[in-house]
Amino acid sequence: METTELLLMLLPIILIQLTLMIVAVIHILRHDNFKVGNKALWLIIVIFINLIGPILYFAIGRGE
C-alpha cells in the first residue's frame, strides 16, 4: 500500500477528529457550566486526548 492510498483512507477520520475538537473547544470557551470539572480541565482533555476527548466532553462534561 502506498503512502497516498493510506492517507486517503485516513483522511475522513482526521477530518472527523478535527471537526469534533474544534466544535468542542468553541463550546467550552463559550460556556461556563460543566457537569464535571472546569474549563481548563476540559480544554486539556479535548486537545490532548484527540478523538476520545471531544466525545467524552459531549457525553459527560457539557453542562445544561
SSE diagram, text form:
Blueprint: H1 3-30, H2 39-48, H3 52-61
Can I get a quick summary?
By secondary structure, the protein is an all-alpha fold.
Structure, explained:
This protein has about 60 residues and is mostly helical. It is built from 3 helices and no strands. It starts with a helix and ends with a helix.
* Termini gap: 47 Å
Shape: elongated
Mean pLDDT, rounded to whole units? 91
Largest sheet: none
The level of helicity is over 70%
The helix count comes to 3
What is the succession of H and E elements? HHH
Q: Tell me the strand percentage band.
A: under 5%
Compute the gyration radius: what is it? 14 Å
What's the total number of strands? 0
Given the helix and strand composition, which structural class is it?
A: mainly alpha
Low-confidence stretches: none
Assembly context of the chains = single chain
Describe this protein with a few key phrases:
single chain, about 60 residues, mainly alpha, 3 helices, elongated
